[in-house]
Amino acid sequence: MANIAGGQPPPPRQWSNIVHFLEGYRPKVEHLIVNWSKPTVGRYKCNVDGASKGNLGESSIAFCVRNHNGDLMYAEATTIGVNHGITTEAKAMVEGLKYCIEK
Asked: Which Gene3D superfamilies match (predicted)?
């Protein structure tokens, strides 16, 4: 049987055992604080993101470009059909880079 997140064994299938399992279940919670920093004077920063509903599902990409003051210079978002999550992230990077090269 496959493990659930955190390497724990799968939940039991009988109702009484499921209740017992859930009473003792403590998911591992992690967090990471991420700060956005402005680019240096005369430079621009392009942030990208891709998302999909499932790891093969309807996907969309987006990117935005900001100047050294943090002002939004350009933003774009679009749907790209059915893709895997990693493909979606890569396509977002490609589109952001294409825009930056053209401009």
From this structure: Ribonuclease H-like superfamily/Ribonuclease H
Per-residue pLDDT tens digits for 36-71: 999 999 999 999 999 999 889 999 999 999 999 999
Q: In this structure, how many other beta carbons lie within 10 angstroms of the beta carbon of residue 59? A: 23
Q: In three state form, how does the secondary structure of 6-48 look? A: HHECCCCCCHHHHHHHHHHCCCCCCCCCCCCCCCCCCCCEEEE
10 Å CB burial of residue 92 (0-12, 13-18, 19+) is buried
Predicted pLDDT of residue 5: 55
Cβ 46 vs Cβ 64: under 8 Å: yes
Q: What's residue 1's pLDDT?
A: 44
Alpha-helical segments (H) within 44-84: none
pTM (two decimals) = 0.66
In whole angstroms, give the CA distance from residue 101 to residue 103: 6
